[in-house]
Amino acid sequence: MSGQDQVLLTSARDATPATADRLPPPDRLPDERRLSSLVASGARVQPQLRAIARRLAVFHEQGETSPEIARAGGLAALRALWLEGLVGVEPFRDLLDGEVVDEIGRLALRYLDGRAALFTERQRAGRIRDGHGDLLADDVFCLDDGLRILDGLEFDRRLRVGDVLGDVAFFAMDLERLGQPGAARYFLDAYREFSGETHPASLEHLYLAYRAFVRAKVAGIRDHQGEPGAADAARELAALALRHLRRGRIRLVLVGGLPGTGKSTLSQGLADGADGWVRIGSDAVRKGLAGLAAEQSAADAFGAGLYGPQPTEATYSELVRRARTALERGESVVLDASWTSGAHRRLAAQLATETDADLVELCCVAPPEVAAARIARRAAVGGDASDATIAVHAAMAARNDPWPTAHEVPTTGPAGDALRAACALVA
Ligand SMILES: Nc1ncnc2c1ncn2[C@@H]1O[C@H](COP(=O)(O)OP(=O)(O)OP(=O)(O)O)[C@@H](O)[C@H]1O
Ligand SMILES: [Mg+2]
Fold it and tell me: Which end of the chain is more exposed for a tag (fewer CB within 10 A), N or C?
């Protein structure tokens, strides 16, 4: 690390008296240069956020880890932490709104319960470390000659030890609390870049929610002590926690419907949303199982060849198998297939139950002549994974099991309209 913009995240581990001496005492650091003040005023702080993210990534790389430390990132420890938090906010139920507290508890525990594989992976990857535990925008000063970070390393080891993402989220949530979610996003992305992290977006939401929730409790305590403004802060923090938990819910979205009704278009749009969901399409899976590339034609009559009963069973089993892996690792999944058979939908519903995921069933609908025109246009262009023809559309329409649990998404209008409708249904 360079000497001039120190002492970031060093005091407990490797600060030398020399670096500590160079720091002016905190009371001589100008308040208006606090990162918190700059962020709250909307000033441009990207370079500083990048620098902090880089330092934090290095700091975590050097942080201690061991089997004992890794336990703090496991399912049991996280459950205990949330339950402890939920008990801790009981005195503030009325202040925070009982319904909000209950939903926070329900969503957090549901997320944890289905994500055992994700937590095991984080442990195996060495992402559970002795970290910082208390990195706040208030403790960072942006001076002319660089950054100064007052190293308020948490002294209680139990509160420092955990997933490195907990540290990152601690700081990111502080930026959000200051009204700058864009800065929080920028910081999270920069950390991801410097650390080479590959976590699902949902895990960020979980840790952001946890920090907001803990701080809501602390604000509740301050309110009980009579601090003005603390009640509003507590409610805002609880709302922030709930927003993240809602966004981080794990969804299994089935996008079904007849050929040419816009399933692939809609599922790609859903998968390309802010949190980057996983899209798995039956066409690519079916051909992959047969050793074909997705865009290679396997066109055949309805129910024949690669579209016969056996390859179709194998395709849906594989879709569900791949979806399970992703859901257990905290990725929301969009499954693009016809879903015309009730038996296949039941497989998916069972998967959602087993992985504590929210099942959302969407059925794309367009009049046959619209679908036919689109299929014809698509065939003229070429390059699509779908082999469906107008004849296949007609044959499938005749043997489509009723799908009462699905929300119909009309796709006759512009693709953006269908996507907006679908986004509202999965939100
Ligand atoms: N809402 C829409 N408005 C206009 N064009 C659309 C819309 N949705 C899809 N399309 C176009 O219609 C064609 C068929 O759509 P898409 O490939 O998404 O259908 P599909 O349901 O996946 O079909 P298949 O079952 O054959 O895979 C594509 O060329 C796509 O660009
Ligand atoms: Mg398609």
Answer: C
Report which DSSP code applies to 66.
Answer: -
How many domains in the chain?
A: 2
Q: Indicate the SS3 state at residue 14.
A: coil
Asked, for residue 268, whether it belongs to a domain, the answer is: yes
Q: What are phi and psi of 361, to 5 degrees?
A: -105, 120
Q: What is the pLDDT of residue 25?
A: 62
CATH number of the domain enclosing 322: 3.40.50.300
**In the prediction, which pLDDT does 155 show?**
77
% the chain with pLDDT above 70: 94
Q: Are 318 and 285 in contact (CB under 8 A)?
A: yes
Return the residue whose CA atom lies nearest to atom 12 of ligand 1.
374
Q: Residue 182 is part of which domain span?
A: 17-247
Q: Across-strand partners of 254? A: 335, 361
Q: Which ligand is nearest to the CA of 374?
A: 1
Residues 217 and 345 in one domain: no
Q: Write out the H or E segment, with its range, that includes residue 426.
A: helix 415-426
Asked if 52 contacts 149 with a C-beta cutoff of 8 angstroms, the reply is yes
Contacts of 60 (CB under 8 A, 6+ apart): 129, 131, 164, 167, 195
Which residue's CA lies nearest to atom 27 of ligand 1? 386
- Tokens in use for 192? 């991801």
Establish if 279 belongs to a structural domain.
yes
